[in-house]
Design goal:
The protein is built from 13 helices and six strands. By secondary structure, it is of the alpha/beta class. The protein has a single domain, classed as P-loop containing nucleotide triphosphate hydrolases (Rossmann fold). Helix 5 crosses helix 6.
């Protein structure tokens, strides 16, 4: 790969699934950050998604069971091996990511900010930080009960579509064509989904703790509640101009999605059972 590309500072979006990474992707794209010519409907670049999935598969797992990736990549030798494979794969696939939409004049000198969104980045970040030592990272954080409720609903819908069942039998693994990923039994209830949220949040904070000014944490609720202020902060972080008219970028923002769990007594009750964990991550029940 061209050394100038490897010396650039891409912007990586990380965070738990259903935490608002898609909304952030739309906002960054609106600010002028190039996020891939091969983006899917969920905003993920197919190039980087496939490489991240490959890393997960090399670790014997997939996104619903991310901890094996953490343990494997904690081994220096295995991390370097995974990095070499990912670098080669990116070199082979980069043309798909860039496409004809690669910004004219940007070349490989980083003049036009670029990056990609994928919640899996949360666990594969050690690989990407070795490929791009100057990478910048934005972590999207959302209330864990809202995330758990959204994820469990999505998994239940996917299960019904794939099998006609509402509760998965033991050891169920299905190919979910709607999500485009392998889905395991984990995630079909609030407790499992919340535990997954905790793992992603703790990993994201551990990985970004040493990055200083090259990392930024954004709360989903703040993004909904005071979007114009955060838009300016995001623009500065990504190295792009603050838009004179931000409304066009922020039209997808729906303030009613913040703390949606509070409208459901069952979810409020569940929040009470995990109040200590929520508090550890800055959320009151």
């Amino acid at each position: 790969m061209d050394a100038r590309l490897l010396e650039s500072s891409p912007v990586l979006i990380i965070g738990m699934h259903r935490s608002g990474t898609r909304l952030l992707d739309r906002i960054l794209a609106g600010l002028g950050v190039f996020l891939g010519a091969d983006r899917q409907a969920d905003g993920e670049s197919v190039t980087f998604m496939l490489i991240n999935e490959s890393i997960f598969h090399q670790c014997g797992t997939f996104w619903t069971e991310p901890m094996p990736v953490h343990f494997v990549l904690s081994d220096a030798e295995l991390l370097e091996r995974a990095t070499a494979l990912a670098r080669d794969a990116l070199g082979a696939r980069f043309g798909n990511y860039a496409g004809s939409a690669w910004p004219p004049g940007a070349g490989l000198d980083g003049a036009t900010p670029f990056g990609w969104k994928d919640p899996r980045n949360t666990f594969t970040l050690p690989v990407w930080r070795r490929i791009f030592p100057r990478a910048r990272v934005i972590h999207v954080l959302r209330h864990g009960v809202d995330v758990a409720a959204s994820l469990s609903r999505r998994h239940a819908a996917a299960l019904r579509a794939a099998t006609g069942e509402s509760i998965p039998p033991a050891l169920t693994v299905i190919r979910d064509h709607g999500l485009g990923v392998l889905s395991s039994r984990r995630g079909w209830n609030l407790a499992e989904s919340f535990a997954m949220w905790e793992q992603y949040v703790e990993k994201a904070r551990r990985e970004t703790a040493e990055m200083g000014g090259r990392s930024l944490e954004v709360r989903f609720e703040d993004l909904l509640g005071r979007p114009e202020a955060l838009l300016a902060a995001l623009a500065r972080f990504c190295g792009v101009a603050v838009p004179e008219n931000p409304q066009a970028i922020l039209e997808a923002v729906d303030a009613g999605r913040a703390f949606a769990y509070r409208r459901d007594p069952e979810l409020v009750a569940f929040a009470g059972t995990v109040r200590e964990i929520l508090g550890r991550h800055g959320y009151a029940q």
